[in-house]
C-alpha cells in the first residue's frame, strides 16, 4: 500500500459519494448514463469474485470491494426505480455490446493464467478502461453537463489516473509489474484527457462545463 494507491481509492470513493449525493439532492438521474453504471457493476462483480475466499486476508481490500459492488448496485436500483422517469434512453444510446465484446476478446487472448477467475479479472480490467465511454458520449451529445455531474466524472477519472504512479512506485520499489492493468489504465486516462482539459478550463474556473457538439 502506498500514497498513490490510497489517493486513488479515496478519489473513487469521493466519485461515488458525489454521484449518489447528486441523485438524492436533485431527485433525478438526469445526465447520468445508465449504461455506464451497468458496465461498472459488471466490472466489480467479475473482478471481485475473490471476496468469497480472501476477506480474512485483507479487511481494507474486502471492504472496498463490498462498497464498490454495493454502491454500484444501489445506483442502478435508484435509476430503475425512484428516478427512472428522469432518465432519457434516447440520449444514452452508446453501443455497449462492442465494449463488452472487445473486452471479452482481449481477456481470452491475454490472461495471465487460463483459469476462470483470471480471465474474468482480465475482462474486468479491460472493460473498466472503456466503461466511461457511454457517459462521455452523453456529455458529447448534450454539449453540457451539470457541475456536480462533471465533478463525479473528474473524481472517477482521477482515481484511475492516480493508479499509474502507483504502478510506477510498485515497479521501482517492489519490482512488481502488471502489464494488463497498466496498459488498460493508460487507455482509460487517455479517454479522459479531453474531459480533464475542458474541466480545468471551465468548471475549475467557475464557468459552465461545455463540450463541442
UniProtKB/TrEMBL annotation:
Signal peptide: none annotated. One of its GO terms (biological process) is protein retention in ER lumen. GO terms for cellular component: endoplasmic reticulum membrane. One of its GO terms (molecular function) is HDEL sequence binding. It comes from the Eukaryota. PANTHER family: ER LUMEN PROTEIN RETAINING RECEPTOR (PTHR10585). Belongs to the ERD2 family. This is ER lumen protein-retaining receptor. It comes from Tuber melanosporum (strain Mel28) (Perigord black truffle).
